[in-house]
Amino acid sequence: MSQNRVSQGMTAKLPSPAALAPVQVPTPKWWPLAAGVVVLALLLPLALTVAPSLLGLPRYEVAGGQIVARSLAASTVIPAATPVERATLPRLSKRIGSNMPGYMVGRFTSPAGELAVFGNGSREGLLFATQPPTFITPADPDALLNAWSKGNVMTFRPAGVPAEQNIWPLLLFLPLAGVVASLLLTKPRLTYEIHDDTLTVRTRASTTTFPRQNTQASLTTDPLGMRLFGTGMPGYHTGSFATRSGNVQAAATSARPVQALLLEHGGKRYYLTPSDPAAVAAWFGQG
Fold this sequence. Notes:
Pfam families: bPH_5. This protein has helices at about 15-20, 30-55, 140-150, 165-185, 275-285; strands at about 5, 60-65, 65-70, 75-80, 85-90, 95-100, 105-110, 115-120, 125-130, 135, 155, 190-195, 200, 205-210, 215-220, 225-235, 235-245, 245-250, 260-265, 270.
């Protein structure tokens, strides 16, 4: 690290607003795309929650003497004359698939072995002797069996579930996705301001003051290293970071500035990136 202690005898001169302004760092062209991918990944569970209902899944299509059970990602054909029985299953264990309210599909295991399930979570339904056995939960089992036996063309669905059972994913994921989108897609505000004999540093989550009389200032060319806790994104680095000379509390716009300002106050070291760190350090040096 290149570190120069500011002379205590230097005449105090108030830094200009331009000198105090945080170093401007252009946003990389790839950042909006990366942020969008993160937001979409958070929205994926929500999409998987509402998509089955919007697409009318699971459903059972009866045609040509066979039944096709469909889910969002799979389907199975139940041939004509396949042995079937009404069944009440014990608790099932999911191997792969979904076990959401109103949408229980995939491969499940039971005391009787593995099952292909296309249902709404009800334990009562129709069990067909396919390989593996297929369990479905139509709202009207009699009507489905009658249409199947007669070779009619009809489509059936499970009974719906109360809306309150499906609202929890919305309550969880929509606010979370909104917060993350706000954090990633809007540029956070970071300011350095001097009022009287105090430098005030404001980030999105905190405000820290540095009295000129009780703060030691120095300059460094060390970049920020590994983020230990906090936020690290283009143009905004706050929280605890490692540097070659030890850990710092960052409130910086650049992780690799040409020169940064180190402030020691209250037993902690702070890493700032004003446009003219030497001018700000000189102001502290008069203290």
